[in-house]
Each structure stands twice: as C-alpha cells, then as structure tokens.
C-alpha cells in the first residue's frame, strides 16, 4: 500500500489546510442557526455552554478524526477500517453516506443563495424589481419555479466540480485561501452596516443579554440544542476532518489546528449573529422569522428591500458571502467521496483520474439534488416519505435527507467512534500520531483528552443523538 502514497498529494501549507478546514466548518449553520439558538436559549449563558461542549466533546472528536486520518493517510473508509476493524467499516460507510445525503440539499440551498445574488444584481441594474414583492412572495416564487431551481443547483455543483478537479493543493486549498479571507472581510462590512441601523440594538440584546430562564426551565434541552449545533457546525462525523487530515504533513500540530478550527468557526458564528440579527430587528418587520431558510431568504431580503438605494448592493454582498460559506462546505463533502474512489483505485494498483471521479460524483449528486430542488421545501406537492405522519422529518425532502444524515448517521457515527477510540483501540494511538516528528502532547492535556474521549464524548453524543431524534419527531 505504502508505495502508492506519493500519488495522493498534500496541502501546500498549514495555513492552506486551516483555511480549507475552517471553510468546511463555516457554513449555513453558522449564519441561520447559531445566532437564533443563542438568543433563544440564554444568550451569553448559551455561549458559555456551547464553548464548554466545543472544548470538550468537539475538541476530542476533531483531534481523533485528524489523527486517524493522518495516521492512515487514506480515505475515511480505509482509515477507520485499518484502525477500528469491522466497526470501522460500519462507521466508515456512515461517514460517507452522510456527506452524500447532505449534498442532496446543501447544493440546492447553495443554488438558492446564488439565485438571490443574481436577483439583487438584476435589481441593482434595473432589470427586475423584486423589491415590489414581499420577501415571502419572492421566496415562494423561487421555490415553485422548479426548472430555475434545478438550473442553479446544477450551476452550484458545476462550480464545485471545477474547484475540486484541480486537486487538494491547486484546487481546494487555492480556492479557500482566497475565499475564506474574502468571506471574513465581507462579513465585517455587513456587520458595520447592520449595527449602525436605527433599532439595531434590540438584535444585539436578543442575542447577547444573559437570560437564565431557559436554563432553569429545561437545562437538558438547552444542552442538547447547544451540542447538536456544535456538532453540525464543526462538520464532525462527516468524514471531512479524516479526509482533510489524511492530506496533512506529519510536521504539523494536530492540537493547534483543532483549537484554531474550533475558535474560528465559533467566531464566525458570533459575527454572523452580529451581522444578521440587528438588521432583522431594525428592518425585518415585527414577527420576522429569525432562523432557517426563512431568515436567510425572507427576512433578510425584506431587510435589503427596506434599505433604500444601497439595498441591492448589500444584498449582492451578503448572498455572495453566504454562497461562499456554502460552497467551501460542499467542496469538503464532495472531496470525502472523491478521495474514497481515488484511494480505492490506488489500492487496486490503478491510477484513478481525479477529473473523471469528480465528474461522476458530481453527476450522482445532481441526480439526488434534482429531487430536492424539485420539491422546493415541500411546496410542489411531490411525494415525500412518511409525509402523512406530519412530523418535522417528513415535511420536505430536505428534512427527510437531513433526518437520516444529521439526525441519525452523524451522531451515531461519532458515538461509536468515541467509544472505539476511548475503549477499544485506546487514546494512546491518537497520542502517538499527535507526537510524530517531535510535536508534544502534554501529560495533563492527554489525561484530559483520555477522560473526555472515554466518558464525556460518548455520554454527550448519546444525549445529542436523542435530542436530534426528538427534534425530527416533533409534529409540525
Ligand atoms: N458545518 C456546516 C455548517 O455550519 C454544515 C455542514 C455539516 C457542512 C457537515 C458540511 C458537512 O453549516
């Protein structure tokens, strides 16, 4: 096996790896879920709980994924198989099923973002006048226009194709090294506009004011909301961190990188809240939706419509930012599958063509995404599994795909992985990988890691799994 490794390629620099991994973590979840969850679940108190969970469960799972990926230097399936045996095969497949299913809707949402960018552009140059429609009306128009939704979904997937075809260093790394700083700058510009709107302060209060009532009423549900968000936001149990880690040089520090990814992702989530909530409170109208697709495509479009002449310009900027956040996550999801097929070819002694494999994976994603795009969040009367049950998981194809991946496969995979690392193969294996080429894993930190991976992570993942199931089985 060893002699094929030189075909695989590697990140050009640690910064490039970091930008790509932060790009994979920063996505729609940071923008449309975190700010509202924080506001509703206790403000600063929620943030503290989130940080504690990220520093314990998030940190140890991320570090373990990076270590296993880099140790084996192979796709997520082979990596888990070679350190965890038969159970590794099981979680390896889970970690490929989830990205594939997530892509079915993530690319549709990415396509919506691109559509909104175009809409605001044509408003700016006077081609169309969406500002005459309410945000809710233009959103409904988009959802029910199946051909256009499918077209933009395909455009989004095609963009992924062209980036990933270039390879780890000359494709993914190069794109993220420009895209992530650009995203950050745009976010700062949007924040400056948002917080200087009259009435913005209400949004800041909603998000940050400490409020212990939700914690007293139902601490467990706050805990599982924070855990589920942390887990999804860091893109754990998706094969992403294993895959990206498999291309990392042995010189680099896994501990430092894990901490930096977690800190950056959390920072962007907080910044997204400061960008989005003050503007929504100032211009979104009373009763505006503050989370999910409705926040992104209804409330915020209403905000841009109400902004006057500069509205479309901020609209373009904002939806470009969100498109970037989405595409850097989608790229990571596709690469998990691409790496799998490339490594499988290499193991069989063949030299797989990256271009061809990326093309085939993207085609398969187009097929499933067509279904989700045509469904338009359930607005077009398509048959949806378990629809009659009237549960959250069956309200649209998007929710159904999300249920299998985010609801079940991800937390289950991470639960099993933490048990395997903690109890079967043992935390020492991770320490060995962390310490190759002279990096240190201090005794105290290692004791903390071992304790968390053995006790805190399995217990936390079980709680998150149950919390997710409860959410998806809620009647709508
Ligand atoms: N972390 C991404 C977000 O916050 C979501 C995601 C999860 C993307 C898993 C890819 C894989 O939106």
Portion in beta strands = under 5%
Radius of gyration: 22 Å
Number of β-strand runs: 0
Estimate the mean pLDDT confidence. Answer: 95
Bound molecules: phenylalanine
Protein structure class: mainly alpha
Low-confidence stretches: none
Structure, briefly:
The chain has 476 residues and is mainly α.
What are the main properties of this structure?
476 residues; binds phenylalanine; mainly alpha
Q: Would you kindly provide a written description of the structure presented here, covering whatever features stand out?
A:
The chain is mostly helical and 476 residues long. It has 19 helices and no strands. The longest helix has 49 residues. It is globular and about 60 Å long. The protein starts with 13 loop residues before the first helix and ends with a helix. Bound molecules: phenylalanine. Phenylalanine binds next to α2, α11 and α15.
């Amino acid at each position: 096996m060893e002699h094929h490794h030189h075909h695989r390629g590697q990140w050009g620099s640690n910064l490039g790896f970091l930008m790509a991994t932060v790009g994979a973590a920063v996505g729609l979840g940071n923008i449309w879920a975190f700010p509202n969850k924080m506001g509703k679940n206790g403000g600063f108190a929620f943030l503290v709980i989130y940080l504690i969970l990220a520093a314990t469960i998030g940190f140890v799972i991320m570090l373990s994924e990076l270590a296993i990926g880099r140790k084996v230097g192979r796709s997520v399936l082979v990596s888990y198989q070679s350190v965890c045996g038969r159970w590794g095969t099981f979680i390896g497949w889970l970690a490929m099923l989830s990205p594939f299913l997530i892509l079915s809707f993530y690319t549709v949402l990415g396509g919506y973002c691109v559509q909104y960018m175009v809409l605001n552009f044509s408003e700016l140059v006077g081609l169309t006048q969406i500002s005459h429609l309410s945000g809710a009306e233009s959103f409904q128009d988009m959802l029910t226009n199946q051909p256009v939704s499918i077209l933009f979904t395909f455009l989004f997937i095609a963009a992924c194709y062209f980036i990933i075809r270039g390879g780890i260093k000359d494709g993914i790394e190069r794109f993220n090294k420009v895209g992530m700083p650009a995203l950050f700058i745009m976010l700062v510009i949007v924040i400056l506009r948002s917080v200087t709107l009259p009435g913005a302060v209400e949004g800041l209060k909603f998000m940050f004011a400490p409020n212990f009532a939700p914690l007293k009423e139902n601490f467990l549900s706050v805990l599982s909301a924070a855990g589920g968000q942390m887990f999804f936001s860091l893109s754990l149990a998706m094969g992403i961190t294993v895959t990206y880690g498999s291309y990392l040089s042995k010189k680099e520090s896994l501990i430092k990188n894990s901490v930096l990814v977690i800190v950056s992702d959390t920072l962007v989530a907080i910044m997204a809240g400061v960008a989005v909530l003050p503007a929504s409170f100032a211009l979104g109208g009373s009763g505006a939706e503050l989370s999910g697709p409705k926040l992104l495509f209804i409330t915020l479009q209403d905000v841009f419509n109400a902004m006057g002449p500069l509205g479309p310009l901020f609209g373009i900027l904002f939806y470009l930012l969100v498109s970037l956040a989405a595409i850097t996550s989608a790229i990571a999801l596709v690469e998990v599958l691409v790496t799998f097929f490339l490594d499988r070819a290499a193991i069989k002694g063949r030299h797989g063509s990256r271009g061809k494999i990326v093309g085939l994976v993207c085609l398969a994603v187009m097929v499933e995404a067509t279904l989700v795009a045509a469904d338009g969040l359930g607005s077009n009367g398509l048959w949806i599994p378990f629809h009659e049950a009237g549960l959250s998981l069956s309200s649209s194809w998007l929710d159904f795909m999300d249920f299998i991946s985010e609801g079940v496969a991800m937390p289950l995979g991470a639960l099993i992985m933490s048990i395997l690392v903690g109890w079967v193969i043992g935390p020492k294996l991770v320490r060995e990988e962390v310490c190759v080429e002279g990096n240190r894993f201090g005794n105290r930190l290692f004791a903390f890691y071992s304790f968390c991976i053995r006790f805190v992570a399995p217990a936390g993942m079980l709680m998150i799994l149950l919390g997710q199931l409860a959410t998806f089985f809620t009647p709508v």
